[in-house]
Amino acid sequence: MPDQRIPRTAKSLAVSLLLCGSLLLPPGTAIAQTVLAQSEPAAESLVVVSWGGTYAQSQVEALYKPFTETTGLKIVRQDYRGGLQQVRAQVEGGDVYWDVVDVAPADLEQGCEDGLFERLSLLLPPAPDGTSAAEDFLPGSLHLCAVGSLVWSSVIAVDSEQAGENQPDGLEDLFNLDDFPGRRGLRKSPKGNLEWALLADGVPADEVYDELSSDQGIARAFAKLDTIKDEVVWWEDGAEPGQLLARDAVIMTSAYSSRIFKDIAADERPYSVIWDRQLWDVELWAIPKGSRNKFRALEFIRYATGTEALAEQTRWIPYGTARRSANALVGPFNPLQEVDIAPLLPTYPDNMATALKSNTAFWSENGEALVERFNAWLVQ
Questions:
Q1: Is it true that domain 10-151+282-329 has CATH number 3.40.190.10?
Q2: Contacts of 103 (CB under 8 A, 6+ apart)
Q3: How does pLDDT run across 114-152, given as a tens digit for each residue?
Q4: What is the third-level CATH fold of 153-281+348-378?
Q5: What is this structure's pTM?
């Protein structure tokens, strides 16, 4: 791994960033604002907040430990369950003790709008081949208030044994009961299902959210779902798709790619994944407004979203990365060294060929109404 030592002073960091980085700045921000004043007290630790479980453990191994070895800064890990309640209480109460938070896109959008997160003035390192960060990061993973890290997605998992010789291999097959009879599993939510319905009905990917913004488009999506509604088993928890397949309750089901990975790679279940038109989104690092250690928090985000660090994280958890350049560095999966994890990640180039990014702004604006309509449709 290249030397990633991080300069200990604001001045030296600014120089190194200007020489090798890519700029992530709010409009009108001066370059001098990319660092805090040198008078900021030196921090001995950073409080980094994330989701817990194996997800957080991947961050410990791939990010926290090497960052501490490189900088001397100790990472104090805290877990939370998402949402903005705790961040809002700290910011509005004037007592911010979290320094960096791993946030979901919807929470980020709302929190940034409400002034709960810092607007980042940050230069990010280029890819190893010199490609700028702006080109290297996936679309939608660089935000005014955050930088993307890991990518997760919804895919279609198929019981290959049930399917037999006639294996489904595209999104349209989810809706094709004639050629692929059998029950389907779908998440009990309009999000994802409406997009897939329109895509399978022939709407181009770049027109899906425009279509869903019209009454006619919404009606079209529900009409497509009507064609399989009687054969759908609805699930709510991410562990359920694997359970449905295991007991032959469905022939195929929507699933989170990271969850179905265990069934395929570790448990060697006879399942396959349809990556066609997978729906993906990204987790992001943000800094609560008023962090006492903003400068060091920026150091951490810059390190944690570097190509090498993101590639290392995929060795601990089967998520994709927000940087394209990390694909070439993906190595063996640590818990299962014999598994070639790269083709099982959502950001593997072949898997991304027809992928659609979930539109956070659309769902923030329309989600409540569409959930209400979806719930009414379920009981019709």
A1: yes
A2: 82, 111, 117, 146, 283, 284, 285, 286
A3: 999 999 988 899 999 999 999 999 999 999 999 999 999
A4: D-Maltodextrin-Binding Protein; domain 2 (3.40.190)
A5: 0.88
